[in-house]
Amino acid sequence: MIIEPFCINDIATFLGLAATEGWVAEAWEFDFLLATFSAGSFCVRDESGTGIGFVTSMRHDRSGWIGNLIVSAEHRGRGIGEALFLRTIEALRDAGADTIWLTASKTGKSIYEKHGFTAVDTIFRWTGAGRQRHSGHTAHTDGSVITSSASSIDNQAWGDRRDALLAATAGRGRVLAKESAFLVIQPCGEALQFGPFSALDTGRAEQLFDAALCSIPCKTKVYLDTNVPPECACCPGIL
Description:
By secondary structure, this protein is of the alpha+beta class. 31% of the residues lie in helices and 29% in strands.
């Protein structure tokens, strides 16, 4: 098995595999990842040179994130996913990441646990719709620059500086901000996605969330990913 760098020409192949799994993935994400941390994204190819397994990662200030680990269905069970996973951990460690995070699927959970990863919370994807009735009551930016205040709030909520990610997501969408809270609204396929979204108190979070929904036309689909500790996990619902 030969593990090679994930390159620009692999994006279309990955998106094809992701579509078969029902994943929501877009090319911009890979352009961003390859531009900011190309050393942490890898591919395994078949005899023809076609990618059959992929993984990407992102290094923040002190931590790293592993994502997009996928192997084509006909090539599973051969250790490709685990090999890619370990190679990415090595790259993140070499780049100085002290802590590594990931979102585990049911099929990948056993691999991660085998190598010492433990569950810290559960991710739910909520789906709702805009409910625009009025506007102008929340500060908006054009998304071209993420403010130092938003960066500080995100740092306190996440526990690390994610300035490159914040700038990339804000740059393709728009930012809503209140004191001690910010929310990025960005395109996600034919829908919109809320996130990154951080607040230092629940009251501000609720105000900003309501303002965001009221800034989006009715019937426009909205996604929001939330995380809760395992002991607090409940069934996902509708916005």
